[in-house]
Amino acid sequence: MLPHFLESIVQLITRTSTDLPPDVRKAMGLALHAEEPATRAGQALTIIAQNIDQAASCEGPICQDTGMPTFEVKVPVGADQIWMKARIREAVAEATRRGKLRPNSVDSITGENSGDNLGPGTPIVHFEQWQKDEIEVKLILKGGGCENTNAQYALPADLDHLGRADRTLDGVRKCILHAVWKAQGKGCAPGAVGVCIGGDRTSGYLHAKEQLFRTLDDTNPDPRLAAVEDAVMDAANQLTVGPMGFGGKTSLIGCKIGALNRLPASFFVSIAYDCWAFRRLGVTLDASTGAIASWLYREGETPSAPMLTPEQLASGFPRTGREVRLRAPLTDEQVRALKVGDVVLVSGRMFTGRDAVHAHLMKHDPPVDLRGGVLYHCGPVVAKTGDGNWRVTAAGPTTSIREEPYQADILKRYGVRVVIGKGGMGAKTLAGLKESGAVYLNAVGGAAQFYARCIDRVAGVSLMEFGTPEAMWHLDVTDFPAIVTMDAHGNSLHRDIEQASGVVLAEQRG
Ligand code: SF4
């Protein structure tokens, strides 16, 4: 039955992970052209544009966090949903084996990674019957960084800078703006929000995520909600949070709002935040063979229009001549000379470390000498080559704030001089940077293909028992670009932009 179904789903996963749909490309193109190239925002968006084109051309994951695969499937009456779900699970495992998805499914009790993206609750598959004689499969891959910036409000509520949000559409508008402001760069701005007004806590989040299946340039059929969407877009893009939270003109590329009935006692506003790496595609399938009949959200097999010209793509990171070159290991003097806003190009060896490594280092000595070293918050996609070596195929930064409870201690204990991640860190780490003589560098979140190309070789790996994304990879890099956003003198660009955008947010009290 349906002999082509499995391969059609593998194709859908592959293209969703590697090739952004035209509406998202268009929105990111507008964001790119709104910024001056030599600004932090302009440089970040140019890296993002290069990354989008690189991912499509090599069919590699756009971002190393390939997210939670969420399928919405519509089937003719009588279709065998049990069989289809089993094939979708097989397709997810196969796409993982082919390196199009990172192994992302972790046992919540033991922390063990299943290795194939299968496990209780992974992937998410929703079925619905319809009257048509064809199958429709839509897929969204939404990563952990943006998932962690989702928000749910119970109205009425008092919101920072905005005051009271009532049970009105204006209250809804305030909640959405508050969520975008709170997200800052942590969800890899500029992002898009799907919103549900009403429902219960569970259905609200589900319906909010479903809004992300709308195209960014559509118009809400409900004029009341369309007006809120427009108002949010206008106000959010005045916040100056900007790409990656670096400051800039574009903080949001889409706002899509739906509504469900609610209980009289409840008024939830649920917000699903998706990052610029907004990976969403779909297909219709022949109901008798499972072969792809058409693509949704894109023009069939026609290649996507590139973000950049071949010359722009070949020119690499847009340099201003003011970049600071660093080679690890680094001295206290070198690090203390850096200031917030400096653009640096890091070469030498760096070590990856995210949640499991940080927890491990609180109780055990590191497997390598970290003195003067560079610790990269990253869970790469790594493949074994034919000669038995490792090759990194996607390696962007992960959200750093998760390591806030550990970072200052690790800097002090082991002499780490540079932490690279995204989204910034908090007051405890800022104090730790000052005390230990270290800096935090913000790399461009989601730019997994771009940064993979800065890696010359994998020199080794430690702590493989934590699974591929959580292991400590030893990477030799050349000219890895990032921006100093927290320095050794107590300065933080993240704190400054959060405060400045909070002042602008307050103007939206109404
Ligand atoms: S672009 Fe950023 S938020 Fe989105 S999946 Fe990648 S790391 Fe996560």
Would you mind describing this structure in some detail?
With 510 residues, the protein is an alpha/beta fold. The protein is built from 15 helices and 20 strands. The strands form five sheets. Strands 2-1-3-10-11 form a five-stranded mixed beta sheet. Strands 13-14-17-18-20 form a five-stranded mixed barrel. Strands 4-9-7-8 form a four-stranded mixed beta sheet. Strand 10 (279-286) and strand 11 form a beta hairpin. The chain binds iron/sulfur cluster.
What's the structural blueprint in terms of helices and strands?
Blueprint: H1 5-18, H2 22-34, H3 40-58, E1 68-76, H4 81-97, E2 124-130, E3 134-142, H5 144-147, E4 151-154, E5 157-159, E6 163-165, H6 169-183, E7 191-198, H7 201-210, H8 223-236, E8 252-260, E9 268-274, E10 279-286, E11 292-296, H9 310-314, E12 324-327, H10 332-336, E13 343-352, H11 355-361, E14 374-376, E15 381-384, E16 390-394, H12 404-414, E17 418-421, H13 427-436, E18 439-442, H14 448-452, E19 455-462, E20 472-486, H15 493-506
Parallel strand pairs: 1-2, 7-8, 12-13, 13-14, 14-17, 17-18
Antiparallel strand pairs: 1-3, 3-10, 4-9, 5-6, 7-9, 10-11, 13-20, 15-16, 18-20, 19-20
Iron/sulfur cluster binds next to helix 5.
